[in-house]
């Protein structure tokens, strides 16, 4: 009996839907199963599109525009009177953007002749190298396939013994859907989600306090960048308590009570209207049917894979948040493309050392490669160049001169080892650094490239020049 599909992708997030598209482009008969629904309608795109990257950026943009109109436009000679924020209308715009993305993915599936089932996909068995996949949803069905790509993603980690109610105790999903501004807002975890959502609700009027157990902000970032970020965000009005260990969290009738040890070890207590728990995410394998086929999970619950995203089962692959590595949408996308190409007998490639990180606060934060601290710990001899946006003409015209670009290069070969940025639109500028490092460029290579004037990108060139102590505008 012939199989129904060449490739089955379980999960329709950035990794899953991109893997399905690439598999279909390569001529394989492909099916994707995803169980997301919004208002009863199938909603492709996973966490990223529905309750993550896309809606959070919609709120960040809206709140930034509001703050600029209220407090910042006068600096440009524009006087605005009676600025107000319509939160329900802001949320309607967020929902509209999410739906546009959902519909866009569905269009791409139709364009590439990909079969799509809305429901929960799980292994039902394997025989003669052919996998049976069950789909449970509005309809129940089964089909067979030769290759399986697991892209089931992750879910937010809850505080112990305190499940999310999405009213007072919020996950990354609940914090996106508030229709009024809380007077006081607590966030446990000052990582990417915590800082971004804290920025949104602080701009809109909340008194926001972030509790971070680590002694410093953004432990994975370059220390110079992290220190600048804490300075700028604190100046804006966020209260960031580093070295603060939360001991107890108690849901109250009209709020949430938190007991914590501050950085000095003193016990403190506080009550807040809302709490966002942002303490990481866990891989989502519930209902996948791993026991039916003997799929191996690691000690942390991730699907165990090798360097090529192969599981312990023949022709079964796993990508994205459900496997090792950073939980980033673009990492999942690259893995999805690579796996589809490997299934087709081609060379699929993912450069894990070249995956950029971005925090969409103001100023934005972005980096790729090794930090200065990592290079010191590894006894790598390096040079560094730093250029402040204060000395960049375009940044001055924009009125956003906070931050800098920092380039780290090998002391002997001059190869770029890491690039770290905090400032305006660095989420876009980091792409140049990623490309440079992908092609093993030197700081001299970047310095010799003509950058348009006046642009923010000139700060990257100037930082490269500064590696050899020859910045022109500083």
UniProtKB/TrEMBL annotation:
<dbReference type="InterPro" id="IPR004099">
    <property type="entry name" value="Pyr_nucl-diS_OxRdtase_dimer"/>
</dbReference>
<feature type="binding site">
    <location>
        <position position="280"/>
    </location>
    <ligand>
        <name>NAD(+)</name>
    </ligand>
</feature>
<keyword id="KW-0285">Flavoprotein</keyword>
<dbReference type="GO" id="GO:0006103">
    <property type="term" value="P:2-oxoglutarate metabolic process"/>
</dbReference>
<feature type="domain" description="FAD/NAD(P)-binding">
    <location>
        <begin position="5"/>
        <end position="336"/>
    </location>
</feature>
<keyword id="KW-0963">Cytoplasm</keyword>
<dbReference type="InterPro" id="IPR016156">
    <property type="entry name" value="FAD/NAD-linked_Rdtase_dimer_sf"/>
</dbReference>
<feature type="active site" description="Proton acceptor">
    <location>
        <position position="453"/>
    </location>
</feature>
<keyword id="KW-0560">Oxidoreductase</keyword>
<dbReference type="Pfam" id="PF02852">
    <property type="entry name" value="Pyr_redox_dim"/>
</dbReference>
<feature type="binding site">
    <location>
        <begin position="152"/>
        <end position="154"/>
    </location>
    <ligand>
        <name>FAD</name>
    </ligand>
</feature>
<keyword id="KW-0547">Nucleotide-binding</keyword>
<dbReference type="InterPro" id="IPR001100">
    <property type="entry name" value="Pyr_nuc-diS_OxRdtase"/>
</dbReference>
<keyword id="KW-0676">Redox-active center</keyword>
<dbReference type="GO" id="GO:0005737">
    <property type="term" value="C:cytoplasm"/>
</dbReference>
<feature type="binding site">
    <location>
        <begin position="189"/>
        <end position="196"/>
    </location>
    <ligand>
        <name>NAD(+)</name>
    </ligand>
</feature>
<dbReference type="InterPro" id="IPR050151">
    <property type="entry name" value="Class-I_Pyr_Nuc-Dis_Oxidored"/>
</dbReference>
<feature type="binding site">
    <location>
        <position position="121"/>
    </location>
    <ligand>
        <name>FAD</name>
    </ligand>
</feature>
<dbReference type="Pfam" id="PF07992">
    <property type="entry name" value="Pyr_redox_2"/>
</dbReference>
<comment type="similarity">
    <text>Belongs to the class-I pyridine nucleotide-disulfide oxidoreductase family.</text>
</comment>
<dbReference type="InterPro" id="IPR006258">
    <property type="entry name" value="Lipoamide_DH"/>
</dbReference>
<feature type="binding site">
    <location>
        <position position="212"/>
    </location>
    <ligand>
        <name>NAD(+)</name>
    </ligand>
</feature>
<keyword id="KW-0274">FAD</keyword>
<feature type="disulfide bond" description="Redox-active">
    <location>
        <begin position="48"/>
        <end position="53"/>
    </location>
</feature>
<dbReference type="GO" id="GO:0050660">
    <property type="term" value="F:flavin adenine dinucleotide binding"/>
</dbReference>
<dbReference type="InterPro" id="IPR036188">
    <property type="entry name" value="FAD/NAD-bd_sf"/>
</dbReference>
<dbReference type="InterPro" id="IPR023753">
    <property type="entry name" value="FAD/NAD-binding_dom"/>
</dbReference>
<feature type="domain" description="Pyridine nucleotide-disulphide oxidoreductase dimerisation">
    <location>
        <begin position="355"/>
        <end position="464"/>
    </location>
</feature>
<dbReference type="GO" id="GO:0004148">
    <property type="term" value="F:dihydrolipoyl dehydrogenase (NADH) activity"/>
</dbReference>
<feature type="binding site">
    <location>
        <position position="57"/>
    </location>
    <ligand>
        <name>FAD</name>
    </ligand>
</feature>
<feature type="binding site">
    <location>
        <begin position="327"/>
        <end position="330"/>
    </location>
    <ligand>
        <name>FAD</name>
    </ligand>
</feature>
<feature type="binding site">
    <location>
        <position position="321"/>
    </location>
    <ligand>
        <name>FAD</name>
    </ligand>
</feature>
<protein>
    <recommendedName>
        <fullName>Dihydrolipoyl dehydrogenase</fullName>
        <ecNumber>1.8.1.4</ecNumber>
    </recommendedName>
</protein>
<keyword id="KW-0520">NAD</keyword>
């Amino acid at each position: 009996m012939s199989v129904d599909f060449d490739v089955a992708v379980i999960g329709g997030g950035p990794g899953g839907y991109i893997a399905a598209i690439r598999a279909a482009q390569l001529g394989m008969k492909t099916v994707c199963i995803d169980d997301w629904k919004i208002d009863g309608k199938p909603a492709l795109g996973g966490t990223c599109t529905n309750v993550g990257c896309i809606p959070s950026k919609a709120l960040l943009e809206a709140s930034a525009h509001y703050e600029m109109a209220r407090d910042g436009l006068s600096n440009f000679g524009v006087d605005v009177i009676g600025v107000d924020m319509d939160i329900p209308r802001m949320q309607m715009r967020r929902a509209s953007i999410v739906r546009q993305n959902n519909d866009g993915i569905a269009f791409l599936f139709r364009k590439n002749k990909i079969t799509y089932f809305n429901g929960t996909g799980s292994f039902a068995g394997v025989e003669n190298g052919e996998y049976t996949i069950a789909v449970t949803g509005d309809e129940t069905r089964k089909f067979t396939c030769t290759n399986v790509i697991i892209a089931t993603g992750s879910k937010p980690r809850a505080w112990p013994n305190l499940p999310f109610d999405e009213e007072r105790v919020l996950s990354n999903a609940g914090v996106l859907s508030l229709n009024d501004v809380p007077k006081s807002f607590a966030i446990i975890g000052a990582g990417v989600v915590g800082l971004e959502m804290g920025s949104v609700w602080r701009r809109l009027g909340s008194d926001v306090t972030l509790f971070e157990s680590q002694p410093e902000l953004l432990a994975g970032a370059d220390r110079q960048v992290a220190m600048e970020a804490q300075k700028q965000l604190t100046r804006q009005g966020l209260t960031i308590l580093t070295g603060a260990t939360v001991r107890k969290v108690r849901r109250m009738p009209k709020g949430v009570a938190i007991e914590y040890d501050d950085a000095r070890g003193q016990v403190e207590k506080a009550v807040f209207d809302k709490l966002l728990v942002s303490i990481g995410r866990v891989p989502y394998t519930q209902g996948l049917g791993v026991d039916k086929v003997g799929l191996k999970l690691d000690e942390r619950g991730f699907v165990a894979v090798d360097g090529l995203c192969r599981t312990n089962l023949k022709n079964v692959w796993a990508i994205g948040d459900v496997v090792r590595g950073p939980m980033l949408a673009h990492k999942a996308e690259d893995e999805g493309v690579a796996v589809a190409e490997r299934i087709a007998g081609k060379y699929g490639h993912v450069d894990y050392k070249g995956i950029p990180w971005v925090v969409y606060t103001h100023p934005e934060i972005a980096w790729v490669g090794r930090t200065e601290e990592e290079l010191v710990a590894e006894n790598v001899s390096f040079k560094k160049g730093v250029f402040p946006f204060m000395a960049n003409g375009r940044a001055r015209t924009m009125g956003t001169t906070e931050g800098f670009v920092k380039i780290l290069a090998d002391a002997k070969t001059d190869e770029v080892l890491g690039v770290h940025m905090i400032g305006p639109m660095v989420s876009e500028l980091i792409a140049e650094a990623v490309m440079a490092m992908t092609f093993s460029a030197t700081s001299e290579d970047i310095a010799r490239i003509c950058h348009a004037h006046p642009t923010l990108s000139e700060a990257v060139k100037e930082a490269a020049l500064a590696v050899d102590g020859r910045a022109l505008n500083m």
